[in-house]
Structure formats: structure tokens, C-alpha cells
């Protein structure tokens, strides 16, 4: 099995990515690639429902599923042992769905902080997956603030017993571009939706994935 740290997206896929996003500098590709690997690593760490907090990484995810599904399935089987399913959430989620989406974003925050040795409740910086869009200046990218995410994490941990379990074996995503996991407004700044494992995933970007 190939080590995820050494894994590289083949050049022909980046050529296709360039066709979809011609205005983005290729110097941004390593950031997107590492972000996608972080997302996979979170699923490898703990199979659960995770939001996709980056529109740029989500764009790569869409490309893989839509144009390179054989490669995508091979990659998922190699690193996860199952195919990470990408499924949109409702455009007008119910209150319960919003709560679940918020939990999924917190799951991603927790996992991303774990990957980089950060305290999810008192991190001194954003983990890479949460800062990529802003760093590469992705159009309509998702931007997060440390105080916002720390507060959301603390609040969710306090009420975790009231939140339904999000562990499942598939994954899906939410198509809301709002960063506020609890709503689908059109703001692209520090909030986020989320992703669910197995059957559904939401994300600040527009998708998410999960596992069981």
C-alpha cells in the first residue's frame, strides 16, 4: 500500500483541472493536493462524517469523481478500503439537518487539528484544510476564523449528547456555499456546513465525506 504522504495526483488530472479552472495558478495545486490528502487522512484516522471546508479541494474531488472515477476508486480502496461517496445535502436543510451539518464540520475541525498536532479548542492557527481557499485566493472560497471555530467546537462538545451520531459507511456532501454549518446563506466567510459518513456529508465548501 502506498504511503499517503508520498501520494501524488497524476499530471494528466491537473491538466484537466486547469481546463476547469484556467485562471488559477498551477502554484496553487500543491496546496489543493495536500488539502485533499489531509481530508483522506482524517478519514483514515477515524471513520466518521466530515465536512469539506474548502471549495478548492472540493473542486478537485468533483473532478476525480466526474472524470477519473476509476482512479478515484483505486485511490479510495488503497487508502481507505472503501469508496468515499459524495452526495449533496438538501439546499434548504431542516433544523435537524443543520445541527448534523454543524457537527460534521466540527468533526473535520477536530480531525484536521489532530493531524497537525493542534488543540481543537485552543489552536493558535488554522489547520491547513481550513486555510487553503484564503491562501490561494480561490474565488468564492471559504474562510474561517480561529475564535469562531474554537467556539463552535466547545459548544458542540458541550451538547454532543444531544447530537445524533454521524458515523456511517458512505459519505456525501452539502452543496451550500455558506460557511455557517447551521445555515445555507450566501456568505463565504468563517462558517461551514459539513459532511456525513456513508450516507451523507455536508460541507462548508459544498461537499463532505464520511466513513463508518
TrEMBL record:
Sequence ranges of Low complexity compositional bias: 165-186, 194-206
- Region of interest (Disordered), ranges: 164-212
Protein name, per record:
Uncharacterized protein
Amino acid at each position: 500500500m502506498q504511503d499517503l504522504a508520498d501520494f501524488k495526483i497524476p499530471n494528466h488530472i491537473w491538466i484537466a483541472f486547469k481546463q476547469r479552472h484556467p485562471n488559477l495558478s498551477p502554484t496553487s495545486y500543491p496546496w489543493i493536493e495536500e488539502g485533499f490528502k489531509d481530508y483522506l487522512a482524517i478519514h483514515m484516522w477515524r471513520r466518521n462524517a466530515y465536512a469539506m471546508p474548502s471549495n478548492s479541494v472540493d473542486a478537485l474531488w468533483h473532478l476525480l469523481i466526474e472524470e477519473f472515477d476509476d482512479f478515484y476508486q483505486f485511490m479510495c480502496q488503497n487508502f481507505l478500503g472503501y469508496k468515499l461517496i459524495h452526495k449533496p445535502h438538501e439546499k434548504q436543510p431542516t433544523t435537524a439537518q443543520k445541527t448534523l451539518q454543524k457537527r460534521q464540520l466540527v468533526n473535520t475541525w477536530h480531525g484536521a487539528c489532530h493531524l497537525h498536532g493542534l488543540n481543537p479548542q485552543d489552536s493558535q492557527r488554522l489547520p491547513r484544510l481550513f486555510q487553503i481557499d484564503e491562501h490561494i485566493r480561490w474565488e468564492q472560497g471559504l474562510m474561517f476564523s480561529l475564535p469562531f471555530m474554537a467556539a463552535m467546537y466547545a459548544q458542540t462538545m458541550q451538547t454532543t449528547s444531544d447530537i445524533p451520531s454521524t458515523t456511517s459507511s458512505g459519505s456525501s456532501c452539502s452543496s451550500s456555499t455558506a460557511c455557517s454549518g447551521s445555515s445555507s446563506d450566501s456568505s463565504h466567510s468563517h462558517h461551514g456546513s459539513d459532511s456525513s459518513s456513508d450516507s451523507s456529508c455536508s460541507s462548508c465548501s459544498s461537499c463532505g465525506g464520511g466513513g463508518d
